[in-house]
Specification:
The structure is a homodimer of 492-residue chains. Chain A has 492 residues and is of the alpha/beta class. The first copy, chain A, is 32% helix and 21% strand. The first copy, chain A, has helices at residues 12-17, 21-32, 41-53, 58-70, 78-93, 152-156, 181-199, 239-250, 303-321, 351-359, 393-402, 422-426, 457-475, and strands at residues 97-110, 114-120, 124-126, 128-130, 142-149, 167-170, 204-208, 234-237, 256-261, 264-278, 283-293, 329-336, 367-372, 380-384, 408-409, 433-436. In chain A, helix 3 packs parallel to helix 11, helix 4 crosses helix 9 and helix 11 (393-402) runs antiparallel to helix 13. The longest helix of chain A has 19 residues, at 181-199. Chain A starts with 11 loop residues before the first helix and ends in a 17-residue tail after the last helix. The model of chain A is unreliable at 1-33 (pLDDT under 50). The A-B interface holds A 64-65, 68-72, 78-79, 82, 113, 115, 118, 121-125, 127, 214-217, 239-240, 243-244, 247-248, 251, 253, 298-301, 447-449, 451-454 and B 64-65, 68-72, 78-79, 82, 113, 115, 118, 121-125, 127, 214-217, 239-240, 243-244, 247-248, 251, 253, 298-301, 447-449, 451-454.
């Protein structure tokens, strides 16, 4: 199916940044006409970029309908499954090939009713959220004095037994950064806090939310199973609630807290990856893989984590699908299931990513490049490439196309570009990154506030522009991203 | 007890706005020394203004300790009562006179457990909060199809019986304004929606939050008793949740929702007003009354509604108390109880305000001027005065003192300056307003987000400066604000 684009007013971002806004309209006309003589790859990439900024609203429509119809999509839930079926149907409507769903078993985790209160010195409600995989409390809740640590390391320094009957709390505050570095530092306490607290006798674990906002919304997120179980109930507190406990302590008060959760597990659930290709014209077995994840945390509707990632890669692939000529290689979109939650058995996390790498093991040798969009909806500001092509012609071409929309070159090779594509990268596939501005991402991440209204459509479309252009350039080239960056001599 | 101020670095606001920053340090020195020859009232007002901006942190400390120790202070609760006792003790420490608590009976309303979900077309959680005085649902909740109206008027136009078995929803969006005009328009649906919905057969009432934010936090607030009861359960939805229901409807779906609440009433509760005076040196029976309210909604800690109001008037009175000379008239601070909730019996609302006007009926003839601070913590931008003094010397003097901190003259007489002082104004006492910038107030108002971290200390202190200066000028004058603005001839 073919989708000529209607003329549309250029948006503000484009007016500021586009080098070739007229090309966008021209490109729309080309798409509907008989095949023209093939344009140079760089020119097509620029046309794709400009088309994305010129009223191409597949991305916003995707994430709007997905988050409205299916709401939260916890791994293993009916909502995740129905969203996967909807996505597959939409891929077919967009004219993609090889559209199919690949299922795999998971242990799901289901948030129940939950509550938290300060019980002493005076009753006050707290805003808290059970961390992922956290076991339920007894029906009466757990109650104890709060013992606060500035960091996970400080908790680890507490002697064995010293937290007996207490609720251990790590209260360190996440640092706001553009590249997410603050998350990496803070998240260890979320992952390992419950286990470390339990080892020292604590009856529950509390965490200042790993987040940069100051709203009464707690940031959930995964914990680590230890010997097949999360050893004590674990909750995140909103930042203002963590402040409140700190102020009461500073006033000389002993603070007691009661926590309640009826969370549960579903051991025989399943999740799934959704796969769709824009088949290459010359070397279809060679794959440029664009990834994002379909599951979300349960409090919000997974709009920026990771509805926008799916929307960006889908819209980018749709633009390439609608170009006058297919790229030489295949562009594959994979919507991974079960990214957010941990599992009680190996490989413990990234079940969708592992399922893909296992199911497609034989094809990975001809996967030429892989990237993932999983850092919200804000603008791309940096291109990271594999070491082999950091300095070559490919990088120069890509930056000529991306610089006009505000993308700089990373000075180091792309690394750890996404959880889902991690197992594929470990199998030897080179990775690229289109780094997004994450300055505001952790205001919303893993909270109830992760909803459609938080998306800036203009920045979303800048992402589509960058992904469409980069994916096209990689897919229409013969560059071997594993070994060298020099393209082969031009074909006659 | 006397509180000399330590020298403190002038804050940024002062550096930008103050005309007489050196006067602040000078005033601190005066306060600790033997009485100097009485300065002209205008000069003292300017000194008070500047002292408030020069590191006088009573206001912030007040609201910090109050909201930390007592958290939410629902009318009739133990938290409200304990906060009143704490406030009275602090007033005594500050050297105020006539400090006492006046109790009155109220029917309290207690939020219980509550939840809301979309049940069809696919289960999704909603963020909702029962509106004040809303009755509980049955234990299994109430469930029905949502019928959406753009406004209360549209709901009122629905025929009798047309909402039988349905959940009526008013989805109009509050308009952001500086002066709160958007609230006045939107709040009618919160007050009367449940009654109007019930009249047409609805089993529950849903309201798009009366608020200007886009967070997953619902704005509660009072409803109206009809014949002694709120006729159906009533809930506010967060703005993103109201959007979600609208989008599902736009996709052609019938949306069903289930609502649950275990709210309850306490018929024999009591609330209280806290009163404290800075006794006038010449005409102590003449009172300039500064009001704010002590109770708060239960989701947040009542930091900006109305912890800051209390903090502002308390700090302003404390500055006047510490001035080298008492004003001629008494400055009275009243912290009203039970402002937020409605009552099932007459006078239905403003129970603290009515209790004060009733208890002090005989004194109201010598209450010369009254104001209330109940619009958050952001800067004062406008002075409103009674009609009689709009054009006189008093207004000119006040504006000379207030203009340097960014306060303009209102062109019309002050009206409806506060719920609590309403009954006192109805009894004939002239009112003034120091209007605050409310542009962001309804992002927070009546939500869980009403916490200390939302207060901008610099703007808070500008409020203290304005209240201290204005209250001083009114209290140190002989102006009759009821009849004319001309001050009597200077006393020898």
């Amino acid at each position: 199916m073919h989708h000529p684009r209607p003329p549309a007013p250029l948006r503000r971002l484009c007016a500021t940044l586009c080098v070739s806004s007229l090309a966008a309209a021209a490109f729309g006309a080309h798409a509907a006409a008989a095949p023209a003589p093939a344009a140079a790859p760089e020119a097509v990439a620029a046309q794709l970029r400009d088309a994305a900024l010129a009223g191409h609203d597949i991305a916003y429509q995707w994430v709007s309908e997905l988050t409205s119809r299916f709401g939260p999509r916890p791994a293993g839930s009916v909502n995740e499954q129905q969203a996967a079926e909807w996505a597959a149907a939409r891929f077919k409507e967009l004219g993609f090939e090889n559209v199919h769903i690949e299922s795999f078993p998971v242990t799901a985790w289901v948030r129940g009713a939950e509550s938290a209160q300060i019980t002493s010195p005076l009753a006050q409600p707290l805003v808290a959220a059970a961390l992922g995989e956290s076991p339920p409390t007894p029906a009466a809740g757990v109650e104890g004095e709060v013992v606060t640590f500035a960091s996970l390391d400080a908790l680890k320094a507490a002697p064995p037994g010293s937290l007996s009957g207490k609720i251990a709390m790590v209260a360190g505050r996440m640092v706001r950064t553009q590249d997410g570095a603050g998350y990496g530092v803070a998240v260890d306490a979320r992952v390992d806090g419950a286990g470390e607290a339990a080892q020292r006798g604590a009856i529950a674990f509390l965490l200042r939310s790993v987040g940069t906002d100051s709203h009464r919304l707690a940031h959930t997120g995964t914990t680590r199973y230890v010997d097949g179980r999360v050893p004590v109930p674990a909750f995140a507190l909103s930042n203002p609630d963590a402040d409140q406990i700190a102020r009461l302590a500073a006033l000389g008060e002993k603070v007691r807290v009661r926590l309640y959760s009826s969370a549960s597990y579903v051991k025989d659930a399943h999740s799934q990856n959704v796969i769709a290709d824009v088949r290459g014209r010359a070397r279809p077995q060679e794959v440029v893989l664009l990834g994002a994840h379909l599951d979300s945390w349960d409090q919000g509707t997974g709009a920026v984590d990771d509805g926008t990632g799916m929307a960006i890669i889908t819209a980018a692939a749709a633009l390439i699908r609608d170009a006058p000529q297919r790229p030489r290689r295949t562009v594959r979109v994979v919507l991974f299931g079960s990214e957010e939650i941990a599992q009680p058995v190996a490989p413990y996390g990234a079940f969708g990513g592992h399922a893909y790498a296992d199911n497609h093991k034989a094809e990975l040798a001809t996967h030429v490049l892989v990237g993932e969009s999983d850092f919200g909806a804000d603008r791309v500001y940096r291109l990271g490439l594999p070491q082999a092509v950091l300095q070559g012609e490919f990088a120069k071409t890509a930056l000529r196309v991306l610089a006009p929309i505000g993308v700089l070159a990373a000075t180091q090779a792309a690394q750890h570009v996404g959880t889902d594509v991690g197992p594929t990268v470990e199998a030897g596939v080179p990775e690229f990154a289109l780094n997004q501005d994450g300055s505001g991402y952790f205001d919303i991440h893993h909270t109830a506030d992760d909803t459609l209204d938080k998306i800036d459509q203009e920045q979303l479309e800048q992402n589509v522009a960058a992904w469409a252009a980069l994916a096209w350039l990689a897919a229409d080239s013969d560059v071997d991203f594993r070994t060298h960056g020099a393209p082969p001599p031009p074909q006659p």
